[in-house]
Amino acid sequence: MKRLIVLTLIVLLLSGCVNVKKASLEEIIEEATESKTDIYNTYRQGYKFYLPSGLYIYSSKNYNEIIKSDKYTYYLYIDLVSYLNDKTNTYVPNNDSYYSMAIQNGDKSGYIEINEKNDKYLVEIMYNYAKIEVIVDENDINNAVANAIIVLSSIYYNDGILDNLSNDNILNYNEENIDIFSSDSGSENSNLLESVDDYEGEYEEDYVPDYDLIN
Asked: For the whole model, what pTM was predicted?
């Protein structure tokens, strides 16, 4: 019964219904991070996660995922280096932001920071050794946060596989080491968006469909 209730809550969060629009960001984040339900539909070498309905994988490369909805593009970055080194979150809320809050649930930590950029809003969420960034309209902030935090909360790292990967392979998977534990929203563009955009054109050739979402 408890599992059914949790699954129902997740469906409500993902559906973009009135509940999500009326809920506070704190409530949305708490619901997702405290969920104990283990469901996955997207699998990678060393980790897996749940991709909400309405989203699909546009491309996947070097622990970076470009995830799309009908309106927006989400950029997911998996920081295996920080995970393997058990790096601690040191984020301090930014009072100058539209919204800023540290996230803590057990041994998992992170932050959410939202900043206005050219009449839109850059949503940055770091949690569970991964980060998602997406630029949305103000009235879509709650739904974007729900989608992002559900993905991040669901990420499961397979230590057995990761231990078998060579350190060089993991440490060199990206030429630029992005610090997901700090927010660069004050800059003109986020370092994660810049890094992914540098080779988004290459992704188009490596399109990876999510067959779970194809009717």
From this structure: 0.77
